[in-house]
Design brief:
660 residues; alpha/beta; Heat Shock Protein 90; Rossmann fold; Arc Repressor Mutant, subunit A; 10% strand; HisK_dim/P_dom; HATPase_C_sf; DNA-binding; membrane
Length: 660
Amino acid sequence: MSIDNIKNFIGKIVGSRAAAWLWKYKLHFAFWVLYFIYGYITDQILYGPFYYFSKELLLLVTHPLYLFYAFVFLFIHLSGKSPQRYLTGFLLLIGLISVFFAQRFTLNFWLFPIMDVARGFPKENLKLKQEFVMGSLWIWEFFVKAIAYFFIVKYFKKLKELGKALAENLAQQKALQAKEIEEERARQIESNYKTLEYTFANLVHEIKTPLTLTINCLNEHIEKHSSSYELDLMKISMGKMNKDINNIFDLQRLKLGKEVYDHQQNCDVSGLLEDNLRIFEYYTKRKKIRLKHFITPDLSSLADPAAVNRIINNLVENAIKFSPEDSTISISLTSDENKIYLQVKDQGIGIPEEEVQNVFVPYLQLNKNNIQGMGLGLPLVKSILDGLNGVIEILKNDEAGKEGTTILVSLNKSNGEGTIASYQAEWQDFLLEEEIRLSDCNFDENAPHLLIVEDNKSMNSYLTGKLSKVFNVRFAINGAEAIKRINDRIPDLIISDIMMDTMDGFEMAQILSKNSQLNHVPIIFLSAKNTEKDKLQGIGLGAVDYMEKPFSYPILLKKIESILALKGNQERRLFQNMKDFGRNMLPETTASSNSYIENCKIYLLTNREMEISSKIIAGLKAKDIADELYIAESTVTKHIQNIYEKVGVKSRYELIRKLT
């Protein structure tokens, strides 16, 4: 019979609560069983059969068991320490003793004689005085035992409570120590962050001087010697760098509470917005974006015009940057009695609801497709508005079925008194980066094919323009687009950035490495990620080289040429091995055999074309053939085209099958 079955059986007899209490004190009640056995045995020894079982059981229930628990109850009742409880306890004590003597006299002078006569024992001659003495000894004995039990239980209870309190105190101390350690760690992290931030701000400040000199010298050079594609690309990149550095520097100064703007000026917000929109219309037209605007005239605010100009530029620039072609940007400037409201609404890629709270965190770039940046525009706008007691809000687009972002800025409206500060809106050269149009550059089918994977349009355009002078070049702006273009045509070499939206360079390389049809294509990584871990990861994914940005273009070009030359040597060696294998298995049909010469005559190939076709069959590229024959590579290319046309083939392998 299991313990659970015993518990259930006891519960059915006395009830679940009583059973739980009995089970809790099971060892205590086991003691009374042992006590009964002990008393029965000793009484048998002392008095013989005169003290039989039923008499012994009645004595146990009415004497020790009754007195013990009665006194324990009394001590618990008196633990309250009030006069009323003491009086009640005294009366209870008198009652307990009275009940005890009544039970004892009833048993000894009435019940036990009847039981003895029934069993044939002689009647016991009992004396009242003797019974009082014996009863008094029983009372003192179990009074002392109850006191001992009560204080022992109370002691262990207190000990248990003390242990629990100590455990809780220890847990609290550990929690407090852990909290102090976390707080100290947080203070240390904050201190380190502030140190790094301060160092970063100083570094930015130091960069501003050489950057200013570079921009001015570049502009002077363009004025004197006219511009070029490379100089325009440099000017755009320098303008973007200058803007980012100014944003970093001003954001840091605003964060430290330094005065960046003089807001004790009256700014013509309406006029400033109109001036800026005239400039932005140039960019929106070139990007095929419709720009709609409604401007309430003569609205002014007590603010530095440079600060308001910064707000307008950041909001409109973001709208243009994140809007696709054939979309609309709507800008409105309205007011009520106390406030001016500037609303910029676009139909671009939008901001996910879960990331709205992050748009004002500096240096946090949201997951927008193919748009890279430092994430400083909106944090800077918010910092400026905080100094103007203004507000910026990201509103949900109310146009059904259309994505996009609506930003609402509110400024305090001035009463129009005082002189309006003059300010001239500036031309934004860095926005020209959005106009860069990328295109594939194919000029020679026999030249190697490269794939440039780079999300920065300026860098992609630069690499495509430079490398297209030597190679056929195609482009992709992220890893996912690169996979599609590779499946359309397998390139001879891939040059890829790593940090890109949608799919980065590492993900792309991992997909290619698992594809048996594509894992032979060599990859060169170009990245600003320069840790040893990044380099090991790139090489581990199958890249043949890993170059840090900024990089040297001549070195990149030499590496490309070396990798392609090695690849060509390996292909020629493989082809030669295949030819040797075929020569052992089949009758000889080499480029010097009679069948080859006869076939060339059939297709009316000239002696020079026969010479060049034999080298094509041997696996040489156009450049190698030109070097061996001491003729121009373009001449070799023209001969190859003529040979393919005469024989009616499109590849070297088809040429081999027809001529050998």
